[in-house]
Amino acid sequence: MSLPPLRADEHARPQAGKRVALLLACCVMATLFAGLGAWQVQRLFWKLDLIERVEARIHADPAEAPATASAADEYRRVRLAGHFLNDRETLVQAVTELGGGFWVLTPLVRDDGTTVLVNRGFVPPDRRDPASRAAGQVEAPVAVVGLLRLTEPGGGFLRHNDPAGERWYSRDVAAIAAARGLAGPVAPYFVDADATPVPGGMPVGGLTVVRFANNHFVYALTWFALAGMCVAAAVFLRRRPAGAGGVPAP
């Protein structure tokens, strides 16, 4: 026995249900993409404000180095005076505009007994031995001006610091202080020394790169474009003629 053929309205019901589901999906995705676009606009203005504040810190007159620091202090120009503990310097792997080599981090003991790690600058691999740059191992009291930087705990990308093996990939203040047995209070930050010439020319200071990726405008355009495509798809589905595929508009 053969079944009676489906009436047109019975055939159209599931198709109309699919259309409604697609319309809802387009609306949800458009809302989501628009929200992401708005979030990127907020991030854009936050990043522009951050860049403006950091630029102001970099070019301001140096202030006395503080006892502690927060994110609001990063890249602030500071000054400090004291004497270097040259025998406790630490070499941290670095890649700079001068090529690959090492940052030379040397503890500086201030007159009040506190210690600040100073990134004196860059040396190439053939000058990693302090004896090869003996003129730069200053023993007399010094004054340093530079940029305050927050500690870099853990290590570099996919590479962990190995204090026992003397392999350092980041300027981790606490770990370096512990490895070097620094006594007394140690500031929880380090200072990138400026380009003031060093006796003998090594290390080379003033190589700090201050650059913030700011792709939020492009990201916002991308999300808003996807939201617009979803809206266009919803309009197309809503206005699709009944004869296109035999599905009447709901």
TrEMBL record:
Family annotation (Pfam families): SURF1
Q: What sections of the sequence does the record tag as coiled-coil?
A: none
Q: Do you know which InterPro entries this protein is assigned to?
A: Surf1/Shy1 (IPR002994), Surf1/Surf4 (IPR045214)
Q: Membrane-crossing residues? A: 20-39, 217-237
Keyword Transmembrane on entry: yes
Q: How does it sit in the membrane?
A: Multi-pass membrane protein
Task: Give the keywords, sorted.
Answer: Cell membrane, Membrane, Transmembrane, Transmembrane helix
Q: What's the protein name?
A: SURF1-like protein
